[in-house]
């Protein structure tokens, strides 16, 4: 009888010990699984990081594409107003990007000024273009307005290196130059006094800003 009780006692002890070891093994396995899961999540987060890109370049390319697809009528005054309104749209988007993500005080302030002044000019240009419902004619002179944009596309540096400030200074400078060239090409055949005056104003203002951008780039080499 005592022997049977002893046997039952040892059986119970071994049973409890077995349960304890099994629980430990399960906990260890779950811990290793969780650790592995954490490592996988960390790796996934690393892989999900967005590759470096040049947002300014993307915006400028989209703007040039929109201008290239614009319908010309042959009315040089109307076509210039429509194209320059589109050109301003590109500048506004680039300026918005700089205002939100730039770090340089001078460039951010320039971008904010662009948002104010070019938005007003854009609305005036759009209003004029919409008021001129000209019949389709010879668009050769109007198409020449696009040559500066096409040249800028060909010369564009597609590198993604650099900061938002550097991208803005470089590409807005190019954008300004194409606007200056387009305005000068328009003045050769301009007829509408108000649009002629606006074109000259654009030349003066963007030449001044481009000089500031060029100076900034010289002082902040990439």
TrEMBL record:
Signal peptide: none
A Pfam cross-reference name: DUF305
Record InterPro entries: DUF305_CopM-like, Ferritin-like
Chain segments annotated as coiled-coil in the UniProt record: none
Biased composition (Basic and acidic residues): 35-46
Record region (Disordered): 30-52
Ranges for domain DUF305: 36-128, 137-217
Protein name (Swiss-Prot/TrEMBL): DUF305 domain-containing protein
Species, as recorded: Rufibacter hautae
Lineage of the organism: Bacteria, Pseudomonadati, Bacteroidota, Cytophagia, Cytophagales
